[in-house]
Please model this.
Amino acid sequence: DLRDRKAADSEVERAVGLRGARARALVGQSRAFSNMDLQRVLHQASCLDIALKSSRTRPQVLFDVFILEVCGRAGAK
Model:
């Protein structure tokens, strides 16, 4: 949202808790995704977090499923 509003660098840095080159890199990478894409990835990451804490499935398998979910849908567009 800050990127879309063309917010000042200092405002972005405060919001994300990063400074300087790290904040600029984050904003630059975020341009490759729509807000809907970012929301979907964050939702998948939240599901992964819950699965890692509650599932008996090996973590490597859970991460593989996460990557396939995130990349598979993005690539299908």
